């Protein structure tokens, strides 16, 4: 049995806390929100973000950051990506040398273009930082529906340790050394999911969705490989797998926000309606900046940014994507004559 601290009591942090408790670990969950702590303690359920999933009696809920971190075998950082750096900064004084922190959020910091693991390493240099990602909606993990994820870590030892902590009959975990590729796939797919939701909101069909998913992973992989990620990662669970589920699922907050935008709402109105952090909105500008920095064409990302921040109509954005210059699907393939 491990002693685990979970930082962040939203839907994903709560679902993973239940999973880890079911696996026989002692889990302490921290939230910065006093009202959330009170609700979780009294109701033993996150009524707002994960209704119907009961919290085990052994799970400790606290607002004490030091208590959550001290003497824990590993930590799970599950705060929304815009708060990763600020939370890591608060955690730093209590994290011991070599203590494992597995980040489970997805995003890229716009001001620095750093992934979340790099932000954590800057703020907590003494930590052993890993990531957990994949096609894994909290609502389904909380209901114990079969799910697969990937743990990325710097060493095989850390990856296999975390694999053994999380794996269960309903939660299969693979390992990978490609932390960068895992994080890029998890972050950029949220931007493509906004586009998929916009298309749904406009009333387009399965053909459109399939095109966005297929061409979307092509954009993600082009950038990811140029940055040093591995192509195998983008064809795997944290690439195409996560992209499919985020573009198609009713649980996807990014798809839902995009749908509302396609229906005519502004970006802010859509975010207010979703009532949770829409990670793709925060990653969209960073994705465009990375594409420019590395000289990679990402037309879907460009059009999403135009809709979100420049007032471009969704219908016009789709038309411009469809009417781009004609080209071969894969320039690496050669004609016989």
Q: How would you sum up this structure in a few lines?
A:
The chain is an alpha/beta fold and 337 residues long. The chain contains 16 helices and ten strands. It has an eight-stranded mixed β-sheet with strand order 5-2-1-6-7-8-9-10, with helices on both faces.
Question: Could you walk me through the main structural features you see in this protein, from its secondary elements to its overall organization?
Answer:
This protein is an alpha/beta fold. It has 16 helices and ten strands. It has helices at 11-22, 34-43, 65-69, 84-91, 116-123, 138-142, 156-166, 179-201, 206-227, 231-234, 237-248, 253-262, 267-274, 279-294, 299-309, 314-322; strands at residues 3-7, 26-30, 45-46, 50-54, 60-62, 74-77, 100-103, 128-133, 147-152, 171-176. Helix 14 packs across helix 15. The longest helix is centred in the middle third of the chain and has 23 residues, at 179-201.
Strand content: 5-15%
Radius of gyration: 20 Å
Average pLDDT confidence is 95
- Please give the share of residues in helix: 40-55%
Q: Strand order, biggest sheet?
A: 5-2-1-6-7-8-9-10
Question: Which structural category do the helix and sheet elements fall into?
Answer: alpha/beta
SSE arrangement, N to C: EHEHEEEHEHEHEHEHEHHHHHHHHH
Unreliable residue runs: none
Gap between N and C termini: 64 Å
Count of helical stretches? 16
Describe the main β-sheet briefly.
Answer: 8 strands, mixed
Shape: globular
Say how many strands there are: 10
InterPro entries: 6-PGluconate_DH-like_C_sf, 6PGD_dom2, G3P_DH_NAD-dep, G3P_DH_NAD-dep_C, G3P_DH_NAD-dep_N, NAD(P)-bd_dom_sf
Active site: 189
Domain Glycerol-3-phosphate dehydrogenase NAD-dependent N-terminal: 4-158
Pathway: Membrane lipid metabolism; glycerophospholipid metabolism
